[in-house]
Amino acid sequence: MKPHRIGIIGVGQTKYVTRRDDVILPELAREAAVIALEDAGIEFKDIDAIVFSLALDALEGVEGAEKWCAGTVGGFRKPFLRVHTGGATGGSAVHTGFFHIASGLFNCVLVLGAEKMGETHEAQNVLNQIFDPIYERQVAINAVNMCSFQAMRHMKKYGTTEYHLALVAVRSRKNALRNPYAHIKKEITVEEVLNSRVICYPLKLYDCCPRSTGACAVVMASERFIRKLNKRDVAWIKGVASCTNTYFMGDRMDDSGINDHADAEGLFLAAKRAYEMAGISDPKKEIEVAEIYAPFTTTELSAVEALGFCEKGESGISNERGVFDIDGKIPVNPSGGVLTANPISVTALARVAEAALQVMGKAEERQVEKARTAVATGEGGSLQFYTVTVLSDEM
Amino acid sequence: MKVAIIGVGQTSYGNKKHQSIDELVFEATKKALDDSGLEREEIESVVTAGSDALDGRGISNMVIAGGSGAYLKDEVKVADGGIYGLILGYLRVASGVFDNSLIVSWTKSSEVSTDLVSNLSFEPLYLRSCGLNSITSLALQTSTYIGRADVKDEDAAKVVLKNRENGLKNPLSHPLQKPSIKEINSSRFVSYPLRESYLPPESDGACALVIASKKRAKSLKKNCAWILGLGWVIDEYYAGDLIVETRHGVSLPLLKRSSEMAYKMAGVENPISEIDVAEVSDVTPYHEMMIYEALGFCRDREGKVLIRDGTTKMGGGLPVNPSGGILSSNPIFTSSLVRVAEGALQVMRKAGKRQVKNAKVALAQGFTGMSTQGSCVVILGS
Amino acid sequence: MKDDLIFIAQRWDIEFKHAAGETASTFFKAIMQRREILGRLCPKCKRVLLPPRSFCERCFVETSEWVKVGGEGKIQSFTIVYEKFEGLPPPPYAIAYVLLDGASTAMVNFVKGLDLNNLDQAIKKIKIGAKVKVAFKRKREGRITDFWYELV
What we know:
The structure holds three protein chains of three kinds. Chain B is of the alpha/beta class. Helices cover 40% and strands 19% of the residues of chain B. In chain B, the strands form two sheets. Chain B has a nine-stranded mixed beta sheet, with helices on both faces. A two-stranded antiparallel ribbon of chain B has the order 5-6. Chain B is globular. Chain C has one domain: CATH 2.40.50.840. Chain A binds chain C through residues 21-22, 58, 61, 121-122, 124-125, 128, 132-136, 138-142, 144-145, 148-150, 152-153, 156, 197-203, 246, 248-251, 253-255, 261, and chain C through 2, 5, 7, 10, 12, 16, 18, 20, 24, 49-51, 57, 76-83, 85-89, 93, 95, 97, 99, 104-110, 119, 123, 128-129, 143-145.
């Protein structure tokens, strides 16, 4: 297989907030599109196809809400496709944009989405409905406690503590102060995290993400298109891969330790595939910044291990040592990450957008020095769907 | 890069209350794998296509993961009709990143009111409270068409009869009786001008395909269906914009656009003579006639002529819907992938009693959204 | 306009009748009629699947043999919920994944009979690895909530 030369040439995000009552969903999506097109230096007419990133229809209150948005975001009589893998949707959307171009059929694709979950009365009620109505839903599982199960197993298996979880929250909040798009911009201390009220033990209020409203867009293009445009700031896509795990989390909880719910095996496999495609053999050395989909502190701990940034079980201690701080060895979530903004439909897309800004050198105050290779992840379902995207400033 | 369909798997269509949704999916996927000769271990990519709202699940591919063969595979879901799964599968394999892919779509509408779900597809500000659902919006589109194309009730009845007669030869069809013209013409109006007899049944069912790169497909040394052309576009959401345009223009302008895209890619210049068989989305009999026009099988407003002169019957110049079409079996979200599956069976010469003789080029067509907002065309060759 | 915007209240109220299928129906009937928990054996990898499924997603073969699993098992993971979530029960409540004796996969359900008002006290008792037994509702109706776990 010849290597694909496909890059991100434009990024657009709205500020993530609790609600946006001044616009409807299509208008919100268009805001991000307009910014991304301007950043790329192109117009709607230059777009060959659109990939729409939209997760749970029930959170928007409109079934197939992407069709409502299609015309408003420039899709009129153009190829238009929506993907949905829960929280991983944005990652899947970027990969789908990549495959549009890699197939040879298209040169320039707009990948975008919007989230208005602020309009639902109770998001966790909707998220309970992702679980099986026959065997699991009535046992009150939701997106919070599915991660509590992960935290409990990680703590048992590796001796991770609530203090380690708190360190992740503190770092994310601190980084978010540098990000003009972040939803939560308030620093917290370890003590405040540990003393915040218990939601689903061991996860406390400050271990959890907010529910956010906002939109994100990226413009992806072929080498030919980029050359013609004479574009210099490009985040080249070096590797894309995803992995789907079992639906029932209990299948990942036997005593064998294989494919364990503590370990994000799906992310490990997706990363392995994406690294291979990108020619990365030692992620510890070669990845210079990471934007990880971690809506709960515990998710990030399992993720950095699965991505090969530290050994299994060592994420807690690595956090103590500041390995993932913005000036550390492998800065994680310099944007503040999902703990400071979670507009579900575009959260994973925002991870790619932020990673792209880093390798383009356009991340402003949150710029990681000399970040030339970045990884962005997505996670959806019952810690079930994982996407990994590797980006670089080099073609 | 060339990509071929190398395996087809379908459940039968009808009420599947004895099966849970993942069991239904497993059945179709297993059949497709068996037909392709590939083991699950060899599969590199899985594309699923389903509707959360119809399934009553927030992220419907969660439960489907196991049955669709996706365990620890690179899987993605299009939240759209099954034919869009094929499109994404094609893009993934054509990129060279994957050697092959499963495409899996399912529908279990017997568990829910589809009228209620389709009403929720209309946004809550201007449309949802105005009596719109999938049927009433199709009726609005149809009445515009009747007005401008001078189509008769009898023409619609003939489409229904043709497809339902074809469906009787398809062992997978939703179990239905053969209706008489009189029964069809005297059935009540559900939403004028659509009679009850003009509407498809609601079926449960699943359909799966295995597609592969040229290298893999050739190595199998068996009949396969080559994907020669693809076209898909979306139209304006607000159907009112379109109805104004359609009154003065052509039927289904978006389908015309997507067929042009597919024809160009496949090198089809004269569809009526180059295409041997078509499987289209006859969501109503009137739509089948509109589709003829948009696909260029005839001139604008002349869809009725192809029905009157028997061109699209079995044995005619261009048989349309030998499987019986959607009027015979309608697993709503999956119906468009069934069109591709049936088109593939035709060019693979595996369509049994519904086989069109010497079928070398097949066209499959699907819609998505309300009032056929999105449209897709796939050209397959032997 | 900023302070004078219109809001349209809507509800999604869709009723579903999910088919449990023959496999899950057999599982629920065994609970209703005989207070038994049944798993399904994969003929290839020999895992006993709980909840039971009619096929093994790993081996991609159908399963057919039922295996009765033990009424006791070990907690593999748990949580105690202190937050009120719309549509979910009033807190506090405990949920755990339990590997029942003879099963290869863990099954989730409520853990009852434990005072949860004091978290520190509660987590001294409920732990990963702790033994639990299955307890059945007196009036069973073919639902996963027909049974729950209790610490032994």
